[in-house]
Amino acid sequence: MAGSETTTNRRQFLLTSGAAVAATGAALALPDQRGNSPAPGTGPAQAHAGPSPTRPGIRRAAPYGLTTLETAARLTGSGGYRRLDSGPGWPVVVRSELAEAGAGRQDRRTALACFVQFTDLHVADVQSPLRSEFLRARSPASWRAHEALTVAGVVSLVEQVNALGGGPHTDRPPAFVMSTGDNIDNHSMVELEWFLTLMSGGRITPNTGDPTSFEGVQNSGLPLYWHPDDMLRDQDKKRGLPQIPGLLEAAMRPVTSPGLRVPWYSTPGNHDDLPGGCMTPVDPVLRDYITGARKLFSVPDADVAAFDRAVYTGDDPKSTVLKDILLRNAARARTVTPDERRRMVTPHEYLRAHLDPAVAGAGPVGHGYTEDHLDGDRMYYSFAVAEGVIGISIDTTYRSGHYEGSLGTEQLRWLERTLSAHSSLHHDAEGRLVRNAAADDAHILIFSHHHSPSMTRRPDAARTEEERHDGGEVIALLSRFPNVVAWINGHSHVNRITPHAHPTPARSFWEVNTASHLDHPQHARLIELVDNHDGTLSLFTTLVESGAPHRTRFDDLSAVGLASLYREVAYNAPGLAAGMSAEVDRVRVGAAADRNAELLIRRA
Questions:
Q1: Are 182 and 267 spatial neighbours (Cβ–Cβ below 8 Å)?
Q2: Is the pTM above the cut of 0.70?
Q3: Are 91 and 82 in contact (CB under 8 A)?
Q4: In the 8-state DSSP scheme, what is residue 533?
Q5: Distance of CA 373 to CAs 377, 378, 603, Å?
Q6: What's the half-sphere exposure (Cβ side, CA atoms, 13 Å) at 146?
Q7: CA distance 517 to 457
Q8: Tell me: the pLDDT tens digits for 133-178?
């Protein structure tokens, strides 16, 4: 990891981690969900997804009620700020690395499950004193100009899921939504309340501190940040971002989320467990500072560099570097309105908030957690995905403070027991065959926040009695159980689908890593599982955007208009749009084989 541009943004470094997808030989174009075949003369990766259908009840421009099979956002024009429009849909790519694609399977298959994955929503209180926007002085990409609009963006995503009909490959409507962590950004109670209300329905006022005025960096007068409301020649306007008078006031207005019409489940991420996703949550200085009346908008370059190193290395478990920065720069901190709602949320409070019947929404109460989880503040569980399909949600966070992930020994053993309970045949750690006649032989889907490359083996000061286990060890465990179909996760802010092949084909599985709904390209995934009745299963993954129109209007500051701006400004992150083709940045969006895909696997 070299260079300040890459080091400073603690999320960016994960973009290049993990094995590259080897799609060669696997990118066989599949006729789309309406039976359209590839156009004559097109190669496998260039197959067309087919024309956009007309769906009843659509009141807004695309992509409302659609998936990326029909249309996807694309950049238009040139210059420092590029606009969005509706582009063609993306094809379905057949991935046959783990099992052959049998002829005629489309006519034989039966549906097993259909659901949606949200990940890395990062619902953010952008006025929180504990935010570290000043890191932008080292790298422009380490602060997001659009993150004051996270609430509007998630409302539009919820509306999109509610508007979807049956899955494109099964005709089943999604049965539930799983949010795989980093649901919130600053580990604060007010963000948690907003997230729970967004998912289950209700009114939200996305503002803290002064109820009548914005107190964040975007009206600070510092040219380091985009000031949408005024004429300041900040560094973002110099590269083309527009002036949009009234944007900050609109971003603080109350908004009502309809809530998901289907049940939803929750998996924890490092930003849910840790302030900033990487700092210790137990320090009294930081606890007081986040609810207090002082906020640092900028610090000297030496302090920016010191905090950057501390975040990247993770070698500051007591947040000493940040506390020293706050102390040294106390005189330059600005006065803001204190707000007790910003307080850090403990694991117990996080669980208790999910269990509140007031946020049950479409269910289930607890959204995967039960009263039993309060004993030990455990955040892992299993649940029924569908008949014959089991989901297992695991907690991969370091509670003492680090953005990477791992599993403790206790949870790893629980995971092994849970896998065993649903597998009539599996192998133990020494390779011996184990039989369990009482098992139901359900197909198994694993959900977590961290993807395998971001799971490490470092000590967790909050759980010193436990050895930690990395992504390689989790892969080794899952490979012992032929019933495991896929491990579905987030954290990287990248779309990537990785085959984990095993010499015994039935012990192979897929890892499905989905991009953030905060950063470009702002995707969720619609996932469908089918039985091909030829000894294979197919897992279909279809990317979904929010329901906000692709084309924005700077004078539309309605909730829908803000959601459109949220997407477009994300596409114009520093250095991103300039390096894109007319379509997308393929690092984050992924290759065609990482987007809309049919993932074949041998049936256990």
A1: no
A2: yes
A3: no
A4: S
A5: 6, 5, 33
A6: 28
A7: 28
A8: 999 999 998 999 999 999 999 999 999 999 999 999 999 999 999 9
CA-angle at 524, arms to 520 and 529, nearest 5°: 145
Distance CA 159, CA 44 (A): 33
Q: Which residues contact 249 (CB under 8 A, 6 or more apart)?
A: 214, 229
Alpha-carbon distance 596 to 176, whole Å?
19
Spatial distance between the Cα atoms of 462 and 377, rounded to a whole number of angstroms: 12
pLDDT at 604: 67
Average pLDDT, the chain: 89
Residue 555: CB atoms within 10 Å: 9
Alpha-carbon radius of gyration of the chain: 23
How many angstroms from the chain centroid is the CA of residue 148? 17
- Is residue 151 a contact partner of residue 560, using CB atoms and an 8 Å limit? no
Distance (Å) of CA 112 to CA 217, 287, 568: 48, 46, 36
* Residue 138, SS3 per DSSP: coil
Instruction: Give how far Cα 261 sits from Cα of 116, 162, 200, 510, 544, Å.
Output: 12, 6, 8, 29, 17
Q: Would the pLDDT of 29 be above 60?
A: no
C-alpha–C-alpha distance, residues 55 and 224, integer Å: 45
- Separation of alpha carbons 303 and 564, rounded Å: 36
Q: Please state the three-class secondary structure of 444-473 as a single string.
A: EEEECCCCHHHECCCCCHHHCCCCEECHHH
Rounded-to-integer distance, Cα 543 and Cα 451, Å: 18
What pLDDT is stored for residue 258 in this prediction? Answer: 98
Cis, peptide link before residue 521, omega less than 30° from 0:
yes
Per-residue pLDDT tens over the stretch 519-554: 999 999 999 999 999 999 999 999 999 999 999 999
Q: What is the pLDDT of residues 53-111, one digit of tens each?
A: 333 343 478 899 999 999 999 999 888 899 999 999 999 999 999 999 999 999 999 99
* Among the listed residues 267, 211, 226, 12, the one whose alpha carbon sits nearest the alpha carbon of residue 133: 226
C-alpha dihedral sign at 396, 131, 307, 400: negative
